[in-house]
Amino acid sequence: MAKQGVKRRSQRQVEDVNGSSRPVDQNVLQSLVTEMLLALGEKPGRNGLLKTPERVAKALGFMTQGYHRDIDQLLNGALFPIEYDEMVIVKDIDFFSLCEHHLLPFYGRVHVGYLPNKKVVGLSKIPRIVDTFARRLQVQERLTVQIAETLKSKLNAHGVGVVVEARHLCMMMRGVEKQNTLAVTSSMLGAFRSQPQTRLEFLKLIRRGSVGDSD
Ligand SMILES: [Zn+2]
C-alpha cells in the first residue's frame, strides 16, 4: 500500500461526546428509511425493498450499540493488581465505525500500548473498549482520544499510546475518491507524551506487521 497516501490528522480539535441512555427507536428509524427511499426516487413497496427499512434500522442499532455500553461494567472484575511495569501492547485490533459527517463506514486497526501502574486490564477487554467507542457515530480523532483517555483513567497507567489507522468510505466512494488513503491518528498520554524513548519503543513495536506493511 502506498505510503504517500498516509494522512496525519492528530492535531484537530475533538468534540467531547458521551454515551446515551436513550434506547434506539426502531419504529421511527424504519419509517425514516422508508421516507429516505422515497426521497431517493425509489419504490419502497417493490419486492427487494420490502424488508429494507427493518434491516437498516436493525443494522444501525447494531452499529451504534456502543452508546449503550458502560465502561465500568465492562471492566468490572477485569483489573488485576500486578508488579509488572513493562509496556503492554495490543495491536491490530480491527474496528468498524460510522463517520458522523456522512453516516458512512470507516474501518481499520487500532494499536494500543500502556505502561502499567500496579494494575493491568484483561487483554480481551481492550478490543471491547475499542468496540464501545467505535460503535457510535464518530470522527477518527475523537475515537482515538476516547480510547486513550479511558485506559489512562481506568488503569491509572503511567502512560498510554493509541494509534488508529483507517480507511474512510466517504473519501473512497465520493468526493476525492482516493482509494489508498490511510488516515492515521494518535493520542499519547503520560510517559508516552513526555518520554520520546517510550513513544519510540511503542511506535517501533506496533509497526511490524501493521496495516500498510502487509502488501
Ligand atoms: Zn465522512
| Oligomer classification | single chain
Rg calculated over all Cα atoms:
19 Å
* Number of DSSP-assigned strands: 8
Are any ligands bound, and if so which? zinc ion
Low-confidence stretches: none
- Figure out the total of helices: 8
Please outline the major beta sheet: 6 strands, mixed
Choose one word for the global shape.
elongated
Question: Which class do the helix and strand fractions yield?
Answer: alpha/beta
Mean pLDDT across every amino acid position: 89
- What is the H-and-E element order? EHHHEEEEHEHEHEHH
**Share of residues in strands:** 15-25%
| Helix share bin | 25-40%
Biggest sheet strand order reads: 1-8-7-4-3-6
Distance between the amino and carboxyl termini:
6 Å
Task: Sum this structure up briefly.
This protein is an alpha/beta fold and 215 residues long.
Description:
With 215 residues, this protein is an alpha/beta fold. Helix content is 36%, strand content 25%. It has helices at 26-39, 52-63, 71-75, 125-134, 140-155, 169-172, 191-194, 196-207, and strands at 6-8, 79-81, 88-99, 105-115, 119-121, 137-138, 159-168, 182-190. The strands form 2 sheets. It has a 6-stranded mixed sheet with strand order 1-8-7-4-3-6. The protein has a two-stranded antiparallel ribbon with strand order 2-5. Helix 1 crosses helix 2 (52-63) and helix 4 (125-134) crosses helix 5. The model has no long low-confidence stretch (mean pLDDT 89). The site of zinc ion has 6 residues, from loops.
